[in-house]
Known about the structure:
By secondary structure, the protein is α/β, with parallel strands linked by helices. It has helices at 20-28, 46-59, 69-81, 85-93, 112-123, 140-144, 147-159, 174-178; strands spanning 2-3, 35-39, 64-68, 97-103, 128-133, 161-167, 189-191.
Amino acid sequence: MRLSPSKRRVRIGNSNCRRPGVLIVAEHFLHDHSNAVFLGPPGVGKTHLSIALAVEAIQSGHSAYFTTAYDLVSDLSRAVKEHRFEKRMRVYVRPDLLIIDEMGYLPLEGDAATILFQLVTARYERGSIVLTSNKSYVEWDTIFGDPIIATAILDRLLHHSVTINIRGDSYRLRERKKAGLLSSPQRPKVSTQPDETGEF
């Protein structure tokens, strides 16, 4: 899903934002071609926050592209078979901001690890990536099935990045809680400190 930039120039960030980590990321990472990684269990707002960053980027005149990890890999894998990989890869390399959502939610098979490595390498120090995942960094070798490739991807992705760990229960469970079906969920907590393991 390609998002087009607006001609209107506004400051990145929202002074009324209740999540300080988002403000820190929005103010700095795009101009430095840095990356942001949102880690946490399902339903705590990772996708919502990544889209908010995309909106801030667009309002500042930048281009942005949103996709899930599964759709991205499926698209590029199909492009390899159809001998149009380089042309299709440019779609994901060109935007100032690329959002890769749901890394680790669905299994990535075949040449997925190699494809993602090529993409992260192509964007390294050239464009920003925002990535969301329900897996800690120490689990990424299980996503790709190859610890060497996983390490290489993380090496480039995390070189210029901020990791935001979100802890808590799913917002989607609140209605069930209100109905008396669940005990009170914890309020999600945000940590903006880089974490070598990405544990949450």
